[in-house]
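Entry for the shared binder. Reason: the reviewer on the internal report wants the predicted structure included alongside the sequence.
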Amino acid sequence: MKKNIVTLILIIFCNSCLFSQNNAVVKAINENAFQLNDSDPNIDIDKDAKLDSIFNKVRIFGFGEATHGTKEFFNLKFKFFKYLVKNQGVRNFAIEASYANCIAINNYIKGQKNDPKELLKNIGFWIWNTQEVLELIEWMKKFNFDKIQSNQINFYGIDIMDCSNSAKIISEHLTENLYENKTQYLDILSFYTIKNNTKYLNKNILKNHLIVMNELKEILKSSEAKNKELYISLQNSIIQFINLCIDYRQEIRDKEMSENINQILHFNGNESKIFIWAHNFHIKKNNITYTNDFAMGHFLKEKYGNEYYSLGFDFATGAFNAYSIKNKKIEIFSITEPMTKTSSKLFNESSFDSFFLDFYSISKIDILNNYITSKVNYRGIGSTYNPKMVENEKLKDAYDGIIFVKQTQASTLLLR
């Protein structure tokens, strides 16, 4: 009996200490976080010395999202992108989508007539086929309208999950021009012009294809073709896709995505800056928890140091779009209570509906630094939803800062 009483007293004491500590963390967040008054991208963030000091030396802005289907995440990223374009000279935008699938969007924002809804439909991922991304693209087009080419925004796809459009464009180029051995090249390219057509190819065939496609890349490099750089980039996306088919690991995908960022910066010059729009999993500085593979952000941080800034997103409750494995369709899911014993629940106790917390700025504040350097749980939902999708790590190991939103809505899908 006496032992049970002692145990109960210890539990009450520990819970009391934890409650007191959490209150101190929340108080420190209220005193040090950058309050985000709203997520409306049409209301600009006022020029702010604190934000500029955080971002001033950054070249690569990795903006994540805790789900692929949240309206507020998209709108806040749009809002920050506008700020960085206007105040930090960012002119390159990279999204988690295939290179060739984004060429038409890049042409559209630079004045080419087209239907932007069709362009988003053809981007390859349902997650970006939303009203929020459409408004982002329309703003880019408006921004570019009266700018000289060197001051316009460029729109790039950096993912390597699909090369079908790349293969089609290269095939058309070969068909219309004189190249030695082009029949062989066209035969191999025919396997890649249809999405998911390669799943029946064995590794030996893929490795042979890789040799020939690398050979074709060198031929394109030495050619005098108009838009040669475009064809080289398209061919490179085919090579990256084949590499992924040979060794399908998340780390291969993320490393190649980081290489695509390198190429964009190299092409646009030493002073160029880029904004990355992708999931938290990709922009993280360390590894993807579920697979333990290094994330794209890891390779960028390794190469660029503090010139890469990783900004994660988190939320407490609300709705989001995700693919239902059970029902095999996209659905709106809702979370009605913040998950217990998570950073999400603690952040939900703050005074702000949403806020931005820069980890460098708070590193000298012991209570906050201790929190972000201790392991915590938080949600990590991709394009599919499973309640067990929970990250467990030190926030500072994964990100340079975090944006938190208390209550969310589902993104506005253009097509179901």
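Summary line for the report: The two ends are 61 Å apart (CA to CA).
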